[in-house]
Amino acid sequence: MENEALDNIYTRRSVRSFTAEVVSREDLTKILRAGMAAPSAVNVQPWAFVVVTKRDVLDELCLQLPYAKMLDQATAAIVVCGVPDKDQRYSKNYWVMDCSAATENILLAAHALGLGAVWTAVHPEQDRVDITRTILNIPKNIIPLNVIPIGVPKNKGHITDKFKKENIHWETW
Hints:
Blueprint: H1 4-11, H2 25-36, E1 47-52, H3 55-64, E2 76-82, H4 90-112, E3 116-117, E4 120-121, H5 126-136, E5 143-151
Antiparallel strand pairs: 1-2, 2-5, 3-5, 4-5
Helix pairs in contact: 2-4, 3-5
């Protein structure tokens, strides 16, 4: 192992198949703490999180969201939402980037705890935003960015090295 933090980053993968084991509130809180540790423009933190653990709500999201079908196996989900009007300037312009940084921290924290997770997009697809907002009673001024199903992975899966030298340009193009 090169470094524990780097190893966690290099071995994280999208997990779409889960056991029936329940994710603890303690682990979900640790994951949320990691999400909130993400950087944000001038530290505005234009995010809000909806934690879903009720089976009927997970099933309804699964039924309605076209790319979140793994929610039928997940025992929890975190919905990362943006709050574009949290301040007058930065949150409006940077909430998507800030919430994306929080999302990556959530995915890495889940992996570090031995859990699996996957980012399923909601925003900018208005139908998915409306569905998620309706099911979870999210206010109109809050925008759901994604739904992250979380659970105990059913299998170890395959780790893919995504490093590609051709994507790097030193000093100039």
